Amino acid sequence: MIKINDDIYWVGHVDWDLKNFHGYSTPKGSTYNAYLIVDEKPTLIDTVKHYGSDDMLNRIKEIIHPSKIQYIISNHAEMDHSGSIDKLLDFCPQAEVVCSPKGKEALGRHYKKDWKFKVVDSQDKLSIGKRTLQFHLTPMVHWPDSMVTYLKDQQILFSNDAFGQHYASSERFVDEIGADIIFREAAKYYANIVMPYGVQVVKALETLQSLNLEAICPSHGLIWRQKQNIETIIDLYDKWANAKSEERAVIIYDSMWHSTEKMARRIYELIDKENVPVDLVNLQTKDTSDVVADILSARAVIVGSPILNNGILPSLGALFTYLKGLKPKAKFGFSFGSYGWSKAGFKDLEEGLKASGIELIAEGKYFQYIPDEKELASLSEIIPKILDKIKDD
Predict the structure, then answer these.
(1) Active-site residue, 110 included
(2) How far is the C-alpha of 99 from the C-alpha of 37, rounded, in Å?
(3) Pick from 75, 113, 115, 258: most CB atoms within 10 A?
């Protein structure tokens, strides 16, 4: 039994084996968080992915019999959160499923069941006995149906996917793990899940700024309960949503015969010696979803590839396919690479950057076969422009 506050319990499922969440690498696993509030009308906030339902039910049974549950709050219809509602309702068929208008539509499309729905709108309240829940719709953070639930009596925000992280742990609170680790996981989560919806996140933060918060309970990962950490994660969300990046560069490349790698390393050295933070990322050794987290914090995105069959390497193509959907904002970039007999394929590199919303600030640097020292030295010509742009934006 894991108690997180008076009469509030974590009854979720830890997914230690999860290594990929529809393309997002999760080497540290994840959790599907559900929260039980024991009041006159026992209420469950979100459920867990279908294969964690027995785990969730067993945790609930340690506290009350599931038949006593009268409300199931569905903050988001995606199946990692709604996947056990049906099984839970076998125990409490009269329980009402509380959701947004879009949530009712989505749950209907997913489960094709005639559940008892209680549809709520922003600012609507629901008394569950001594306590009152208040709902705030947060459309497109990150689905149309998304909403959060606020327990004013104990100043707890059940934020669903917002402020979450994919992290499996027997601990339940951020401060039990180490905030720095969880802030990094939260950044990766934001970059891969929430980044396309910055405008909507800004609106949601405006709505939530009036709430006093003693804890934020997300639907994945660890719970935020220390005031300083709560303030920091909200500030980070504000920064990310407003596309405020750091004076930082990331160089992302792949290479066939180390020629493009030589160029990448020289660009790295040139930026690094100017005391500007810069990450050097070889796509052969780092997963795309980790690279996206690097892009979130960087202002300059510099990419390199050799030419293969008149195009760029598949790893770069996959990155751009992923990145176009995430729509990073307020970034600028530059491209480079090595070619054999035709450099026409570099247009794919440049088009990939532009299609991802990254501004090109100069013509790319492309060298035939193996770059010599004179060619490598010429890469310094672009550095002042990169540095000026990093510091001006």
Answers:
(1) no
(2) 17
(3) 75
Taking the C-alpha atoms of residue 279 and residue 251, their distance in angstroms, rounded to an integer, is: 6
pTM above 0.90, yes or no: yes
Which is catalytic among the residues 15, 55, 161, 294? 161
The answer to whether 11 and 32 have CB atoms below 8 angstroms apart is no
Dihedral Cα 21, 250, 268, 385, nearest 10 deg = 160
Whole-number pLDDT of residue 393: 61
CB 152 within 8 A of CB 132: yes
Instruction: Verify whether residue 294 is a known catalytic residue.
Output: no
Q: Give one DSSP letter per residue of 199-260, joined into a string.
A: HHHHHHHHHHTTS--SEEEESSSPBB-SHHHHHHHHHHHHHHHTT---S-EEEEE--SSSHH
Q: Report DSSP letters for 286-329, one per residue.
A: S-HHHHHHHHHH-SEEEEE--EETTEE-HHHHHHHHHHHHH---
Matching residue, tokens 């830890």: 14
76 catalytically annotated: yes
Confidence of residue 378 (pLDDT cuts 50, 70, 90): very high
Q: Which residues of 336-372 are buried (b: 16+ CB within 10 A; e: fewer)?
A: bbbbeeebebbebbbebbeebbbeeeeebbbbeeebe
